[in-house]
From TrEMBL:
UniProtKB keywords: Membrane, Transmembrane, Transmembrane helix
Alphabetized InterPro entries for the sequence: Sulf_transp_TsuA/YedE (IPR007272)
Residue stretches spanning the membrane: 33-53, 65-84, 109-131, 137-157
Pfam family name, one: Sulf_transp
Organism domain of life: Bacteria
Name recorded for this polypeptide: YeeE/YedE thiosulfate transporter family protein
Length: 163
């Protein structure tokens, strides 16, 4: 594996290799990802994770609904990482999964506050944006385009920030 420039992740050789014989398999894989994404979106809608009202309730501390969902996701993530480490589970491509300690810096506090402020104002977290658009809340396109623009701008000036 090689470290991708300007990123905090490593790029696997399977991510960068191009093999024209596997074009149909790539299409099949993309269809699988699309199906899982649609299923995930349906779950978001049915659990009301994409509900602007539920998100506002969370930030006003009026309901436990969203905190329960976020808390259960954290617990599932913790159990998953424990199982991956305990049984040395590998990726689909047979590569070892490595967990690297993250270094804390003040920028994470500012970024988290900015993220939370945007989430509270728009009623939209980046995860369910597409599900919200799929439910007909097309005004969320503004939030999606803003998130893309913000990510792009950060990419331009990332090297100027202390990391």
């Amino acid at each position: 594996m090689q470290k991708h420039p300007n990123s905090d992740f490593k790029v696997s050789s399977t991510d960068t290799a191009i093999n024209k014989n596997h074009t149909s398999q790539e299409c099949y894989n993309n269809l699988k990802y699309l199906a899982v994404g649609i299923l995930f979106g349906i779950i978001f809608v049915k659990s009301e994770v994409v509900s602007w009202f539920r998100i506002q309730e969370m930030f006003r501390l009026q309901s436990f609904h969203m905190y329960g969902i976020i808390g259960s996701a954290i617990i599932v993530g913790m159990i998953s990482i424990f199982i991956i480490k305990k049984f040395n589970i590998k990726t689909i491509h047979g590569e070892t999964i490595e967990f690297h300690p993250k270094k804390f810096n003040k920028g994470q506090i500012y970024g988290g506050l900015l993220f939370g402020l945007g989430w509270a104002i728009t009623g939209a977290c980046p995860g369910p944006l597409f599900a919200q658009i799929g439910t007909g809340a097309t005004v969320i396109l503004v939030t999606l385009l803003s998130a893309i623009a913000g990510t792009w701008c950060y990419g331009l000036i990332r090297d100027k920030f202390p990391h």
